[in-house]
Amino acid sequence: MPPLGLHTVVAKEIGDRLRHPLLDGHRGALYLGSTTPDIRVLTRWDRRVTHFFDLTNFGHQDGVAEFLRAQPHLADAHAIPPHMAAFVAGYITHLVMDEIWITQIYRPFFGERSPLGGDCWANILDRAVQFAMDREGRRDPELVAHIVSELARADMGIDLGFVDAETMSRWREITLRVASRAPEWERFRFIASRYLEEAGIETPEAFAQFVKTLPQLVEEAVRYLTPERIRFFLETSVEKGLEAVRAYLC
Predict the structure, then answer these.
(1) In terms of Cα–Cα distance, which of 87, 77, 101, 70 is closest to 34?
(2) Euclidean distance between CA atoms 1 and 94, whole angstroms
(3) In 101-164, where does DSSP find H-type helix?
(4) Tens digit of pLDDT for each residue in 44-70?
């Protein structure tokens, strides 16, 4: 699914467009929330625990509604502290964006029912497109500096109901490190390690050779997916995320 950095960029765009005083006053909480469904990489939980979406279910699912049903103490934005409401708003943007990627991009173009059949190379192409979007989305150093600064001073009084305070603190440090580092191609190994191993790209030497081919691999994947679909995905993520956050805060 889309990388952490790209999630914060989309959350910022939603916050900028909504201009809600609660979000403007707690941008760090908004950005931290936009990354937190991926805390599973730290806790090793099943993805369904944090994303409220079952990848094996090809029927209709609504992760946002399921999230708020599972955590009723978060469902009313007016009944919780402002920083918590901003955090939940960010969490919602992540769920929306991931669901759009899964249903409109991954499954039809890279997944097991796609023309590529969901094999390791299909998944490497999928991750390469995501990585390229992250690189493009975080090209502006001022935007990155803003996100990192706001994350660093985010209020850590977060009560999700299923993540303890120590784990949340560790997650913010991870998010800060990721947000602070430019998404250079050498870091691709960390988001596609499973599929690289399946493809036999396991040693540092093999990966060093593979990295040289990544720009061409991305061009191939973008041609296959088309730049228009990528733009549509990003635009839809902002529009649908905006709708969901507005509904939550109203």
Answers:
(1) 87
(2) 10
(3) 107-109, 120-137, 141-152
(4) 999 999 999 999 999 999 999 999 999
